[in-house]
Give the backbone structure.
Amino acid sequence: MRSFSLLKSRLKCRDELIRELRAKMEADFREYSDRIEELTRERDALLRERDALQRERDALKRKTRAQELDIMQLKSDCEESRQELLFASDTPHSARPATEREDYEEDSFGPAQMTEEKADGLMGRLSPFFIDEGTARRYLNAIRGQKDTEIAMVTNTYWEKGAIQKKSRKTHLWRVLNEAKLYQARESNWNAMVDFKMKR
């Protein structure tokens, strides 16, 4: 009888211990679950913040690119206005009909030495290299009368900003500019300064 009471007492202690352990496990589980939910909420908040920052960054990139294109447009417009003033001030030259000799001066090349017909012909050769004819015309206005190094820098800028077609070959563009006496240096010099492989 005494042995039975002792056994019963031990079983009761065991059951109480099991209940305590089970209660502790459930409490730990709830604590871990709450912590996981809290970390999940923090992660989601960080992801939303990251997405917002990425959208802001992309918007700033688009704005910066638009501003750079506006600056290029302004430079092109200023150059075009300057050339119009040069044409207007060169009354004796512009008043007489153009001849083959006046199409391109041998001593130097500049906007004042190019007839309208010749400029249109050059535009026809330049346009396929650019995303549209307006961009090609702005490029032409930007490089006319410039030094070879400056022309290379302008070309790299147009490529980097996506204004030049990806399929364009820089060698072919050099040939057009060289034949028009816009870019005087050799092809090797052009290839060393112009990079159509840079990331854009």
